[in-house]
Amino acid sequence: MVIKVFLASSSGSTAIKKKQQDVVGFLEALKVDYTQLDIACNEENRMWMRQNVPEDKKPSNGIPLPPQIFNEESYCGDYDTFFDAKEDNSVYSFLGLPPPPGSKEAIQADKAPIVENGTHEEETNAEETNGEGNLDDDSLSKEVPEEERNGDAHGEDEEEQAQGAEEEEHNEGEEEVAEGETAGDEATEGETAGEEAPAEEEEEAVEETEEVTEDTKAREAEEEAEGEDDQPFSEEEEDLQSEEEEELRQLEEEEEEVEETQEEEAE
């Protein structure tokens, strides 16, 4: 079996060139024997490729683009299907080739062997056991524990328990949030009360200061009044006092003169 890769050596599309290089490089890495068939220089290759690509695999315009991959006369696929097979580690199945021993694809095939009728070997063995043993549903139900037969109910119980645990956790979280909010409110009230207390103290201090100021002013006024009473006479008052004293002295002198004159006359 020979793998045929139809490609265009002189394609002007960068995307097509990249896809062709990807396919060829991967086949060489897997050491798969293949043949390159150029559709750009050979009209027969172009016509053969277009005629042998299945209709349901052709694009809407009916002209398949390279790269196109065949196993002899059998169509394998285009670049997109090749890329999907590469991602799934099923390139050998895509190419219609047996996977080499030790490859990932061979290991996967060994883990899930397929029989001729398309069913898995484990399913076939189970069917054979059911047919040869003539086991009915009653015998199977007896051997299977009730808990396993009622697996759905058991699973529902577990789901209910899990939901109950989630609800409890949710409720606990809400309670913690509520407690946190209450504590925050109390702290806010405490701060407000703390702010009000200094304000009241300041008002009381201001009132006391005003009272002290009023007392001080009253005391100063009294002292000023007392000081005015104790102050010595002004110059004008002193002058008046001096004049009055002179007048009194003159009057006394005149009275003495009058008395002397009277005494003389009496003699």
Give descriptors for this structure.
69% helix, rod-shaped, 267 residues, alpha+beta, 7% strand, 4-stranded mixed β-sheet
Question: What is the fold's blueprint, element by element?
Answer:
Blueprint: E1 3-7, H1 14-29, E2 34-38, H2 43-52, E3 68-71, E4 74-78, H3 79-87, H4 91-95, H5 104-111, H6 121-133, H7 137-143, H8 146-149, H9 151-230, H10 235-266
Short recap of the structure:
By secondary structure, the chain is of the alpha+beta class.
Describe this protein's structure.
The structure is a single chain. The chain has helices spanning 14-29, 43-52, 79-87, 91-95, 104-111, 121-133, 137-143, 146-149, 151-230, 235-266, and strands spanning 3-7, 34-38, 68-71, 74-78. It has a four-stranded mixed sheet with strand order 2-1-3-4, sandwiched between helices. The protein is an alpha+beta fold. The model is unreliable at 132-136 (pLDDT under 50).
Classify the beta-strand content into a percent band: 5-15%
Spatial order of the strands in the main sheet?
2-1-3-4
Can you count the beta strands?
Answer: 4
Helix fraction by DSSP (H/I, runs of at least 4): 55-70%
Q: What is the CA–CA distance across the termini?
A: 198 Å
The main β sheet shows up as: 4 strands, mixed
- Spans where pLDDT lies below 50 across 5 or more residues: 132-136
Return Rg in Å: 63 Å
Task: Tell the overall outline.
Answer: rod-shaped
Number of helices: 10
